[in-house]
Every structure is written in structure tokens, then in C-alpha cells.
Amino acid sequence: MPTRRTVLVAAAAAAGVVAVGGSVLATRRPTIPLTLAALRPLVGDRFEVEGRTVTLTAVTGRGGAPATETAFALRFTGAGDLPGATRSFAHADGDLVLHVEPVGPEGSTLEAVVGRTA
């Protein structure tokens, strides 16, 4: 039967592995850059978000303006009833973390707006 000391030493060693990156325990997925150049080619692709499959249907400008590297919007369909929140979207190329809000009828479309100042 292990002693209390043996258990504490093993727990400390495990905590040390986690503290130095935990690469032994998990691998990190790549992230998709939040740029117009990286996202435009993904229009029509599927993403997984909280157990649901959504499709990136558009990368557009904001308010009718043309999309630029500093200002654009992403639209995803197939979200059902997901409320607005910051969510992780998983794609074959990597993950994308966005704050999205439901728009359109029944909130079936999620929109993320990207705006950067120079």
C-alpha cells in the first residue's frame, strides 16, 4: 500500500509536468489566423462548434463596405439556437476563437465582426 509521502511525491511530479507545458499530456491544435487572407478561402467549409456543424457562408465588409484586412465580418449558418458568446470553432486546418452573435430569422446565422484600428 502506498504511503502518504509516495502519493504526495507522485502528485508533485505530475503537477510539474503540467506546469512546464503539459506537452506529455496533450497536443495543441494549430490556430487559424484571424485575417481576411486566411479566412476567405474557407468560405463554404464546415466548422464544429459545441457539438454542432456550421458552415462559413460569407466573409464580407461591415455595413456594406468592402472587406479589408482591418474590417470584415464572418457569417456562419446552421447554428440553430446558439446564443451569442465567445466560442471555439474547430476546422480541419485548426481552431478559430470568435465572439459571435445570432442574426437573421430564428438566430440561425452567427456573425463575428472583426475590426482593427491601425
From TrEMBL:
Pfam families: DUF6916. Residues 34-113 form the DUF6916 domain. It comes from the Bacteria. This is DUF6916 domain-containing protein.
